[in-house]
Write a structure and sequence with these properties.
Number of domains: 2
Largest sheet: 8 strands, mixed, barrel
CATH topology of the largest domain: TIM Barrel
Structural class: alpha/beta
Distance between the termini: 51 Å
Oligomer: single chain
Strand order of the largest sheet: 3-4-6-7-8-9-10-11
InterPro entries: Cyclic-di-GMP_PDE-like (IPR050706), EAL_dom (IPR001633), EAL_sf (IPR035919), Sensor-like_sf (IPR029151)
Strand content: 15-25%
Helix content: 25-40%
GO molecular function, one term: cyclic-guanylate-specific phosphodiesterase activity
Protein name: EAL domain protein
Length: 425
C-alpha cells in the first residue's frame, strides 16, 4: 500500500521520540513542526455500571501564540509516510506517558491508530510493545481504536490487530455505521468493542424507523461477540435513545467534553441513576404497552375464543376485535403452527392494503411456528401474549401481535391478532 519506511522508523524509536516530549507540571507535552501537542481525555461510561470505565485520548495542538490548531490541520502536516508514522507514534507515546501519571489505575485508555500506519511497515508494531514496557502501563488497560475505512491491505490490517491482541490489548473498530462500514470487517477482525458512529444516533433522533435499525445493529453486534459503544451523545434524549438501544457504553458532550485538565477529567461523574429512572418511567408508560394492551384486549379475546369454541366461524367470532380501528387482522393456528383458515381482515385494513405486497397477502396454510408469539402461546395456554413491534411479513407493515392458546375439542389452538404499531399504517 505504501513505500518502504526508512530503517530508523522500523526500530522501536523510543530514543528518537523521547527528546520531543517535555514535562509541563504534572502533564507531558510534545513538540512537532513548531506546535505544542497536549493530551485531552474524554470519559467513557458504562450504562449498567453507572460510572466511568475508560477514556478516549485525543490530541490537541497549539501554536506559538497558544492558539488551538485543528487536529485535521495537524494531521495534514506530515509530508511522507515516514513522518505520518512518526506523528502517530508520538501521539501514542504522549498519551500513554500522561495516562501513566493519573491516579486511576483501573480503567481503559482508548487510543486511535491511523489505518495508514496500521498497514504500513512491519505488521508487528514493536514500538508499542517497547513503549508499554518503558511506561509500565499494562497492555490490558489499552483499547486500540482502528477507524472503519477501506484498506488496500486487509490481510496486514488483520495481522496487526492480531498483534495488539497478542500483546494483551483490547481492540475496537471506530466509526462503525459511517461510510464504508460493514459486518464483514467485524467478522474478519473480531474486535472486542465496536464504536458506533454518531450519524446513527442523529438519524435515530429524527426517525423512529432509524431508531429500530439502531437497536437491531446493537443486537447483531452483541450476537457477534462485541461490546458496543455509542459516541456523540449530545442531548438527554439521545442519552435515553442510547439506553433503549442496549449499548454497553456511551461517550459524548452530554456527559463530558474532552479536556486537557487530565486529573479533573478522571474525577468527573455523571448522574446515570437519574437517566435510568427516567428511562424506566418512559418505558413503563410509553414504550412498553404490554400491560395496557393486555388489559384492553383481554376481555375481547376471551369473548372471541368463547365464540370459536361454540363453533362460530372466524368472521363471526372476531367481529368485535375487527371493529377496533387499530386491529389489522385475525387468524387461527393449530398446535403445529399451521394456519387453519383464511385470515380475516378488518374493513379499514382491507381498504389500505398496498398492492405492491399482494403476493404476501394470502396466508392460508402458512407455518408460523418460527414466530416467538406462537411458541409462547402454545407453551402457556390461556395466557394472552403480546409482542414488541415488528415487521409483519404478510403486508410489510409494523405491528404488534396478540396471541392466546385455547383448547377446542381437546386440541390446542392459538388465536392471533395483529394490531397496527402506529397510526400511519
Amino acid at each position: 500500500m505504501s513505500t518502504s519506511l526508512p530503517e530508523k522508523l522500523a526500530a522501536p524509536e523510543l530514543d528518537l521520540l523521547s527528546p520531543m516530549l517535555n514535562q509541563d507540571g504534572t502533564c507531558w507535552t510534545a513538540d512537532f513542526r513548531g506546535l505544542k501537542l497536549k493530551t485531552a481525555l474524554q470519559p467513557i461510561y458504562s450504562i449498567s455500571h453507572k460510572r466511568i470505565v475508560g477514556y478516549e485520548a485525543l490530541i490537541r495542538a497549539f501554536d506559538t501564540d497558544n492558539s488551538a490548531v485543528l487536529p485535521l490541520h495537524l494531521f495534514q502536516l506530515p509530508a511522507s509516510d515516514a513522518e505520518n508514522l512518526l506523528l502517530d507514534r508520538l501521539c501514542r507515546y504522549l498519551h500513554i506517558q500522561n495516562y501513566s501519571g493519573i491516579e486511576d489505575q483501573l480503567n481503559w485508555l482508548f487510543l486511535n491508530v491511523s489505518p495508514r500506519v496500521v498497514t504500513s511497515g512491519s505488521q508487528a508494531d514493536s514500538f508499542f510493545g517497547q513503549l508499554l514496557k518503558r511506561t509500565g502501563l499494562p497492555p490490558h488497560r489499552i483499547v486500540m481504536e482502528i477507524v472503519e475505512q477501506p484498506t488496500d491491505d486487509a490481510q496486514r490490517l488483520k495481522e496487526t490487530v492480531a498483534y495488539y491482541k497478542k500483546l494483551g490489548c483490547l481492540t475496537a473498530i471506530d466509526d462503525f455505521g459511517a461510510g464504508h462500514s460493514n459486518f464483514e470487517r467485524i467478522w474478519n477482525l473480531s474486535p472486542d468493542i465496536v464504536k458506533l458512529d454518531r450519524t446513527l444516533l442523529t438519524r435515530a433522533t429524527e426517525d423512529h424507523k432509524a431508531r429500530q435499525i439502531l437497536n437491531g445493529i446493537v443486537s447483531l453486534l452483541h450476537q457477534s461477540g462485541c461490546l458496543v459503544l455509542l459516541e456523540g451523545v449530545e442531548t438527554r434524549d439521545q442519552a435515553l435513545i442510547a439506553i433503549d438501544a442496549g449499548v454497553d457504553f456511551v461517550q459524548g458532550f452530554y456527559f463530558q467534553r474532552p479536556s486537557i485538565e487530565l486529573e479533573q477529567v478522571a474525577q468527573a461523574s455523571t448522574n446515570l441513576d437519574e437517566l435510568l429512572r427516567e428511562y424506566k418511567n418512559r418505558r413503563r408508560v410509553t414504550l412498553d404497552p404490554t400491560q395496557q394492551l393486555t388489559n384492553f384486549f383481554g376481555d375481547l379475546f376471551k369473548h372471541t375464543i368463547d365464540r370459536l369454541c361454540q363453533d362460530s366461524n372466524m368472521h363471526q367470532a372476531c367481529f368485535e376485535l375487527l371493529n377496533h380501528p387499530a386491529v389489522s387482522r385475525c387468524y387461527l393456528v393449530d398446535n403445529k403452527g399451521i394456519q387453519l383458515e383464511d385470515t380475516v381482515i378488518s374493513d379499514s385494513r382491507a381498504r389500505a392494503l398496498d398492492p405492491r405486497f399482494r403476493p404476501l397477502e394470502s396466508t392460508t396454510s402458512a407455518d408460523w411456528f418460527r414466530q416467538q408469539y406462537l411458541r409462547q402461546a402454545l407453551a402457556q395456554p390461556e395466557q394472552l401474549q403480546v409482542t414488541a413491534p415488528y415487521l409483519c411479513v404478510s403486508g410489510a407493515y409494523m405491528c404488534v401481535t396478540l396471541s392466546q392458546g385455547f383448547y377446542y375439542q381437546g386440541k390446542l389452538r392459538v388465536l392471533c391478532c395483529d394490531i397496527l404499531a402506529n397510526t400511519e399504517n
